[in-house]
Every structure is written in C-alpha cells, then in structure tokens.
Write a structure and sequence with these properties.
This protein has 378 residues and is of the alpha/beta class. It is globular and about 65 Å long. About 3% of the residues have low confidence.
C-alpha cells in the first residue's frame, strides 16, 4: 500500500479575505459554528490514514497553534510522524517588519524543504485551506498510482461566471483526463469549467526536486513554472471530485458557503459521511440555553449560547448571547460575542468577542454582508 504524508498551506490565501485574516491565518478562520477552515484539509488527510502532516505557516499563526495544540483531536499526537507546525525560516521574514504572505505556493514549499527531504513516505498530498469539502483522499492517491501520474490535480466541474472564474485556476484536459493547460485567474472564461481545488498528489522525490529547482532557477509559480511548463513531457492528471465544495476566496464567498450549511443536503455532504468525519478541537461547553420567548428557525447554534430573542437562517458560534427583543436574520456571529436587547441584524458577519449594544440596527446584503472585526463595541 502506498504511504503518504500531507502538507497544508495555512497562509497563502490570506489576502483574499482581509476582513477575517487581519489577526489570524486563513487556516484558522472560524467556519460552521465550531470549526476552523484547517479542520477540513486536516480531516481529509487523517481519514485517508495520513498520520504525518506538516502545516506551513508564515505569520499570524498563534490562533492556529492554539487550535491545533498537539494534534490529539485528530489522533496526530504521535511520537513518530504526527502533526508538525513548520514555522517560517529566517529567510522568509520581511526584515522591514511588514506583514507579507508568501508570494507563491513555491515560496511556501521552500519553507517545507526539511520536512519533505526527511520524510520517508512515498507520496505527498498538498492541500490549501480555502476549500471546504469532504473528499476521499484514499481514492485520489489510488487514482494517482494507477495512472502512473507525476502530479494529480483534484478538480470540480461547475458552472462559473466570469466574475467567479477570475479568482480560480481552471484546468483543461484531454478525453483521458490528462492535463493539457492551466489558466490562473482567467479574465474572460465562463460556463462549465474544471476548477482546481488546490489539492495535489505527487511523489515525495519529485516534490523534493521541484523545491531544489525552485531554489536554483528562481521559479515563482507552481501552476505556471511546474505544471504548465512541463505538461507535454510529464504526466499530469485530473481527478474529478463529485461532492460539495466551496471556495473561500472573498468575504461574499465565505458568507455564501456558510449559509450553504443551513441546507440539510449540504450538511450531509460535508458532515454526514460516517466513514469520513470532520474533526475539530473539542471543548467542554454547556448546552445552548433557550430562554422564554426565544425563537430559533433554520439555524446552527453552538454550545454555550444563550438565546433570548429571535434567530433565523443564521450561524451562532460558541458562547454567543442574544438579548431579549433582538432579531437576527441571515447572520454569522462568532464566538463569545454579545448582542444586546432590541437589536436588529441582517446579513452581518461579526467576528469573535464583538459587543453590539442595545437598540442597534445593522444590515448588509447577501452579496455584500456587513462585517465587524474582532473585538469592537458597537
């Protein structure tokens, strides 16, 4: 049986959602009431019996470290293998002290050179943290091995507008599934397109060679300098994923994918696969408390919440308090936030520890939610 290790990129998409990544990495963005985005990539790997996983970090990773801990909640607290936080090398720091993320996936991979070179597993699975999906990576690895591929790219065939496509990488292939071209952030493509989910499988030795070539030749782009440049003399294959996926590449995308979870069908696709559970950090909190007069419809309410008002079509994280006479609709309220009495909220994303005082009225729109950063008093 093929052995594999995993590498997860925690920071390279931070620029896409600055409203949520000002004080954290993309990997630690809260999602779905009790999860972080890293939980999906990490659970996909653990469910495929990948027991050695490296998390590539750059900056703002304190909350990520707090969330992951020793990795015990993912059964990765091991003396051999297990969870490895890969802090930035001194050469990747900006000496001026400004906050800059890795300029590319290859830049991030150079930070993982020691992890890759010292691993003994035959294959490496690469995954970003901006994708929400529950995928059978065992099947992806088997597909990769059976096809003798040099790199396997996971794709999803979906209808894309020009606006949506410009934030994605589009994969073009022949009738046999062999990759013939990659188009990064196209300006004018639309229709049914194969979108790259930024999940890749390749041999560890090949990845090691890619990192060395990047250092010596100054390559900048994994898709352009590695895949597109070698598509004719290397065998790159696409693996078509059929399940639910969401890309978190804008604040609107975060809001929409969160609201998708209010659909039972989507929840079943993401969380309802018994053989592939989604793991997260376990916290011992009291159950949610619904006071007299409270009304909750079609919402996800986490442990520790106290509801005195009305909540509809919304997601409340742990420890949220909703005051009497308050109406919350189509909102995402993150951990330990307090909403006072007689408040009206619609299409609002409130980060952790937000306090909204009595009588406030805040409203956004489904296509442009109103966002509150972590910690303010409104």
């Amino acid at each position: 049986m093929a052995t594999a290790a995993g590498l997860i990129f925690s920071n390279i998409h931070d620029r896409n959602v600055p409203e949520l990544t000002g004080k954290r990495s993309m990997a630690s963005v809260p999602f779905g009431g009790r999860y972080r985005l890293v939980d999906f990539a990490l659970s996909n790997m653990v469910n495929a019996n990948i027991t050695k996983v490296g998390i590539i970090t750059h900056y703002n990773y304190q909350s990520l470290v707090d969330h992951l801990g020793t990795g015990k909640d993912w059964d990765l607290a091991r003396s051999t293998g297990g969870l490895k936080i890969l802090p930035p090398q001194i050469t990747t720091f900006d000496n001026a002290g400004t906050k800059t993320v890795f300029s590319s996936r290859l830049d991030a991979l150079m930070n993982a050179y020691n992890f890759v070179s010292k691993s003994t597993e035959e294959y490496i699975v690469l995954s970003d943290c901006d994708i929400v999906c529950n995928i059978d990576l065992k099947d992806v690895i088997k597909f990769h091995v059976d096809n003798g591929a040099d790199i396997t790219l996971v794709t999803k065939n979906v209808y894309m507008t020009k606006e949506n496509a410009k934030n994605c990488t589009i994969v073009e292939s022949d009738d046999n599934g062999r990759v013939t071209n990659l188009v990064d952030n196209p300006a004018s493509m639309e229709g049914m397109l194969d979108v790259c989910l930024n999940i890749f499988v390749l041999r560890r030795e090949y990845l090691n060679r890619i990192i060395i070539d990047t250092l010596s030749r100054g390559y900048k782009s994994f898709t352009k300098d590695i895949i597109a440049a070698n598509k004719d003399n290397m065998k790159f294959m696409k693996y078509e994923y059929a399940g639910y996926f969401a890309t978190i590449n804008t604040l609107d995308g975060y809001f929409k994918s969160s609201m998708d979870l209010l659909s039972a069908e989507v929840r079943d696709c993401v969380f309802g696969v018994k053989s592939r559970p989604v793991y997260t950090k376990v916290k011992n909190s009291a159950p949610a408390k619904y006071m007299e007069g409270a009304s909750v419809k079609n919402s996800l309410i986490a442990d520790g919440c106290v509801i005195e008002g009305v909540v509809e079509n919304s997601i409340l994280f742990r420890g949220v308090h909703v005051g009497k006479g308050t109406v919350i609709k189509n909102c995402i309220i993150m951990q330990d936030s307090t909403v006072g009495k007689d408040v009206n909220l619609n299409c609002v994303i409130a980060d952790k520890n937000v306090v909204i005082k009595d009588g406030r009225n805040l409203s956004g729109h489904e296509t442009h939610p109103f966002s509150l950063a972590k910690g303010p008093v409104i």
